[in-house]
Design goal:
- The protein has 120 residues and is mostly beta strands.
- Helix content is 0%, strand content 61%.
- The protein is built from no helices and eleven strands.
- Strand 4 and strand 5 form a beta hairpin.
C-alpha cells in the first residue's frame, strides 16, 4: 500500500508565497514522475508542474516563472514552491506520483489534496 501525504496549503494574500510538500510512504520500491495538479471549483483538474527522477521539469504556462517544482529522491518527496501567487491560483492542489510498489505494477497514486486560497 502506498500513500501520498500532502502539506503546506493555506490562505495567503496576492503576491505571497506558499510551499507544498508531498511525501510517498508505504511499500515503495521506486518512483518515476511526480507532479502537482490543481482543480478549481467548476473547472477540470489541470497539470501545474511535473518532475522526473533526473530532475527534468515542465510547467503549465500560467505558472512559469512563479512556481518551482523539486524533489528529494531519498525522501520520496516532491515540493512545489509557489511565489507571486495570484487569486486565480486558488484551487485544491493534488500530488501525483507514478510508483512501483511491492507486489504491484507501476501505477499512479494521488494525494488527498490541499487547499490553496489566494485573496486579492
Amino acid at each position: 500500500q502506498v500513500q501520498l501525504v500532502e502539506s503546506g496549503g493555506g490562505l495567503v494574500q496576492a503576491g505571497g508565497s506558499l510551499r507544498l510538500s508531498c511525501a510517498a510512504s508505504g511499500s515503495v520500491l521506486a518512483i518515476n514522475a511526480m507532479g502537482w495538479y490543481r482543480q478549481a471549483p467548476g473547472k477540470q483538474r489541470e497539470l501545474v508542474a511535473a518532475i522526473t527522477p533526473g530532475g527534468s521539469t515542465n510547467y503549465a504556462d500560467s505558472v512559469k516563472g512563479r512556481f518551482t517544482i523539486s524533489r528529494d529522491n531519498a525522501k520520496n518527496t516532491v515540493y512545489l514552491q509557489m511565489d507571486s501567487l495570484k487569486p486565480e491560483d486558488t484551487a485544491a492542489y493534488y500530488c501525483n506520483a507514478e510508483v512501483w510498489a511491492w507486489n504491484t505494477d507501476w501505477r499512479d497514486y494521488w494525494g488527498q489534496g490541499t487547499q490553496v486560497t489566494v485573496s486579492s
